[in-house]
Amino acid sequence: MEQSLQDLMRLLDLEEIEKNHYRATSPNEGWQRVYGGQVIGQALVAASRTVTEERHAHSLHGYFLRPGEMGTPILYTVDRIRDGRSFTTRRVVAIQNGKAIFAMSISFHIDEPGLSHQFDMPDVPSPDTLQDEETIRAEHAKDIPEELRESYSSHRPIEIRPIDPVNVFKPEKRSPRQMCWMKSRDPLPDDRRLHQCVLAYLSDWSLLDTATLPHEVNFLQSNMQVASLDHAMWFHRPFCADEWLLYVQDSPNASGARGLNRGLIYSHAGELVASAAQEGLIRVHTDRGVAS
């Protein structure tokens, strides 16, 4: 496997240390706290390990309680809430240093037929015609503060191709909407649950940023405090996380130092495969300056 895929697989390969208890790695990637998508994906892995194979996650709802520490292992405990005839419910708590940093409820469902409709996928440029986010960041390197350059420009196991790229270090006022193509950089094993966990990891990548777009600010400013508060996902149809997925994001509201963000995720063929929603803290400290 390519190194980027090995890193992603290692991240999502939890160690079972006791029944319903799993330990995960948390690599130090140079950020102030653990990436939220990592915790969401790992919690979904832990819950999935306790559910029979014919059932797959259809929804998850999580709350970020404390910042996660980079480089410190995370313990995931699973509470087997209910095993019904069609649905299974699990609750997962992520713990670091004896304190809960994240809690998530996940519902699993058997496959069954039913009514079907969806919003149409927007007409957007093909990912083959767009630049990779890493290439775009390299072009913005001169605008990146020296202390952030290495972590911001590091190679990641996910590939993002923005439809209308943003230079976060030179923000411009724009509509609270953005779209991007995304996928894992390398082919994944043929495992539906794994693809769900990878998409959970991907889903947090740019969602919260959407609420900052109308305000000419960025999350790296010294007077900004930005953090995910909660995250929800619904899985509608099977998909492949190693094939291009279109992430359509908008932010219908920001108020009270919080921003609400929504996302629709489409396959390259135009099927709506998942939806996401997230509220985040977006606090502007008036007693602090703005980093240049």
Describe the structure.
This protein has helices at 3-12, 36-48, 133-139, 146-152, 192-203; strands at 15-18, 21-24, 55-64, 74-83, 87-96, 99-110, 158-162, 177-184, 224-235, 245-255, 258-267, 272-284. With 292 residues, it is of the alpha+beta class. The chain has a single domain, classed as Acyl-CoA thioesterase, double hotdog domain (Porin, Beta Barrel), CATH 2.40.160. A 12-stranded antiparallel beta sheet has the order 1-2-4-5-6-3-9-12-11-10-8-7, covered by helices on one side. The mean pLDDT is 90.
Major sheet: order of its strands? Answer: 1-2-4-5-6-3-9-12-11-10-8-7
Distance between the termini: 40 Å
Poorly predicted sequence stretches spanning 5 or more consecutive residues: none
Structural domains: how many: 1
* CATH structural class: Mainly Beta
> Averaging pLDDT over every residue, what do you get?
90
By CATH, the superfamily comes out as Acyl-CoA thioesterase, double hotdog domain
Put simply, the count of helices is 5
State the shape.
Answer: globular
